[in-house]
Amino acid sequence: MDQIAKFQADLDSRADAKVIERSVTKNGILASSQDIQAMSQTTPVFSIDLDTGSVANQKQSGRCWMFAALNTMRHALADQFKLKDFELSQNYTFFWDKFEKANYFYENVLATADQPTSSRKVAWLMTTPQQDGGQWDMLVAIIQKYGIVPKSVMPETYNSSKSAEINSTLNLKLRKDAVELRELVAAKTSADEIEDRKNKMLNEVYRMLAYAFGEPATKFDWEYRDDDKNYHIDKGLTPKTFFDKYIGWNLDDYVSIINAPTDDKPYNHTYTIEMLGNVLGGRQVKHLNVSMADFKQLAIKQLQAGQSVWFGCDVGKSSDRQKGVMATDVYGTDELFDVDLAMSKAERLDYGQSLMTHAMVITGVDLVDGQPTKWKVENSWGDKVGEKGFFVMSDAWMDEYCYQVVVNKQFLPAELKAAQAEEPTVLAPWDPMGALA
């Protein structure tokens, strides 16, 4: 009690304590600490500014990584075929991602069935058997196996736009199935019998997903009018032939670049994460860790070539969602409370203060004397936030809270190409670079 009396005396000695208390109790921390001057440094004007059309809306789902990746692909398609506000089907890829994640979960359950439920790996698996989030390489794995379709072919449903119900129901089933699979292994059941039981579980998952998202398209006709009002129809397409004909990317050319300045991840080396993925035997999640200077230059090169950039960040830190501003000085909470809240990027990663939580698309950058000062960002939260859905990210914010970009490896210098091709170091399942956006 003597200690607490001293703490209260210190508070009483501060001349501004009551003013700050009144403001924070009435308005909250962020409103009380917001720096209006920071907004003036983030005007939405950029020296390189790609025209990418209207923003999409992931609504009440965690598909930002999927929306962002499909947006980078639709930008080129929309330009080439003169399609205003065209979107690829996020529901189609959502269906197959959840189906593949279920199988991936079952396989991880079997691989760890000899460990007790108290082991960290088993506990990690059971915490979230599957979720909406993902990474670039995981969407590539889906597209390489299943292709993609226009949104008109497989439109949104209640559950794709509001995924909490299917997630809770599916995770209940997966955990229940995990109990049975582990019991089968403990009983020394034959591999064939376990495989047969797992396939029956997957059949049930498929049925659940078909009820929630609709049956996935297999063959379809695509008809549309372009911006000049000309009618087009393309008959007998499959999801894979649609991708080949209308997107045509070599997805193996697009690689993940990260900036993780922690001691366990030296720069210019590649990393992967144990038990992270969706398609068994599909594209491996693989990151090349580089300095922030290289990170930015690769993004700039791709923008200069006229192509948008998928990126992952910790969107909730030091950002104003409604105004669409991400800047390190947008809130002065340390000044408000008169406490030191500064942590380095590496410290935030090592101590659980930050990780990748959201994926968006960089569509522009403001270069002053050759150096970036701010970046234009296409979000997937609809057009009611930011500047019709577009955000401004300060260059300093990118330094602190951006962790991943995806670029065509043609933009990598020779030494980074060689580094990207190396066999990756395997990181623990709970490493922050395995976070799902």
Description:
By secondary structure, this protein is α+β, with helices and mostly antiparallel strands. The protein has a single domain, classed as Cathepsin B, Chain A. The protein contains 17 helices and 14 strands. Strands 1, 4, 5, 6, 7, 8, 9, 10, 11, 12, 13 and 14 form a 12-stranded mixed β-sheet that branches. Strands 2-3 form a two-stranded antiparallel sheet. Helix 6 packs across helix 8 and helix 10 (164-186) packs antiparallel against helix 11. The longest helix has 23 residues, at 164-186. It is globular. The chain starts with a helix and ends in a 10-residue tail after the last strand.
Low-confidence stretches: none
> Can you say what the CATH homologous superfamily is?
Cysteine proteinases
Major β-sheet annotation? 12 strands, mixed
Task: Quickly give the structural class.
Answer: alpha+beta
Q: Assign an overall shape.
A: globular
- What is the level-2 CATH architecture name? Alpha-Beta Complex
Content of β-strand:
15-25%
Write down the domain tally: 1
Mean of all residue-level pLDDT scores: 97
State the helical fraction: 40-55%
In short:
The protein has 437 residues and is α+β, with helices and mostly antiparallel strands. Helices cover 43% and strands 16% of the residues. The protein has a single domain (42-434), classed as Cathepsin B, Chain A.
Descriptive terms for the model:
437 residues; globular; Cathepsin B, Chain A; cysteine-type aminopeptidase activity; thiol protease; two-stranded antiparallel ribbon; hydrolase; Papain-like_cys_pep_sf; 17 helices; aminopeptidase
